[in-house]
Amino acid sequence: MDESLINILNSVVANATPLVIAGIGETITERAGVTNLSLDGSLALAAMIGFVTALTTQSLALGLIAAMIAGAVVALIVALAGIELRQDQVAVGFVLTLLTADLAQFLGQDYTRIPGPTLPYVPIPVLKDIPVVGEIFFNHEPLVYFSYVLIFVTWYVLFHTRTGLSLRAIGERPAAAFARGTNVNRQRYLYTMIGGALVGLAGAAYSLAVKPGWSTPPVMRGDGWIALAIVIFGGWHPFRVVLGAYLFAGLRSLSSAIQRSPDIQIPLVLLNGLPWLLMIITLVLVSSGAIERLLQIMPRPLQTAMRGVLRSDPPAALGTRFDEG
């Protein structure tokens, strides 16, 4: 395979990693029945906190931990507002994403464009030597490898363990889960914080790996909304969420490559808008019922096979409150 194409695909994997981690985190949160719309601001705040902590302590580990704590705290506020204060989760999340984005820029203004520590590249022995595949997937920094593990662990736990069954139950039928002895709201707090911590880790992936440092406005601005759209695109399934993240990162790389090509003349605004246009089309298809109508006109044997691939039904109790007692 052409070396330049391998380099592009390697870049796609690296640039998709924060979206993968944030998308999996939001999938866990929403599977538990909580809607966290604060992702765009959470990513920025966690990126700033992770970078500043790593810079001031000279510890990448502390930077990653601080970013995860920041993401978990923001997610906890969403859960508290929805469960204890009975506020609308969508409204609270939207306000928080504006607040945390501004807070990140305010607190990080003294650290803009300052060189700092970055996560090192750690090629995996043996695997990195596999032709093509090794160069694309196994020549990265540690968070990329973590994302691989996260994908499969999340899938296995969700669909092949009692823990995953309980998690899906509190997002689908919380009353039935409560009747079986599950503390629904406590579980929702737990999984919302886990999802938020992963969003925080995704923020740190931007400032400590993808584009090291902190800038105003932040380089990840808008990616939180993309991560939310990818969760819907992926039908709240880890593998499909990852596919959406790689597809979006691939479109970004394609638009960048076209911009650098003197032989292709396409307006810059159109190129930059291509990934967003894909997400908008996807959301329209999902919300309009077009996918379901498409399934109905397929031959019946094909319907069963394609339904699991194309259908995107949110958890039935997503964004709703549950009163125990």
Give a verbal description of the structure.
This protein has 325 residues and is mainly alpha-helical. It is built from 14 helices and no strands. Helix 3 (60-83) packs antiparallel against helix 4 (89-107). The protein is globular. The chain starts with a helix and ends in a 15-residue tail after the last helix. 42% of the residues are buried.
Characteristic key phrases:
single chain, 325 residues, mainly alpha, 14 helices, globular
Figure out the total of helices.
14
Total strands:
0
Rg measurement, Å: 20 Å
Low-confidence stretches: none
Order of secondary-structure elements = HHHHHHHHHHHHHH
Described by the principal axes of the CA atoms, the overall outline is globular
State the major sheet.
none
Beta fraction: under 5%
Span between termini: 62 Å
Query: Average pLDDT across residues?
Result: 88
Task: Give the helix/strand class.
Answer: mainly alpha
Helix content: over 70%
Any chance you could write out the topology, listing elements then pairs?
Blueprint: H1 3-31, H2 39-57, H3 60-83, H4 89-107, H5 133-137, H6 142-160, H7 162-172, H8 174-179, H9 184-210, H10 223-233, H11 238-260, H12 268-288, H13 290-296, H14 300-310
Helix pairs in contact: 1-6, 1-9, 1-10, 1-11, 2-3, 2-4, 2-9, 2-10, 3-4, 3-9, 6-7, 10-11, 10-12, 11-12, 13-14
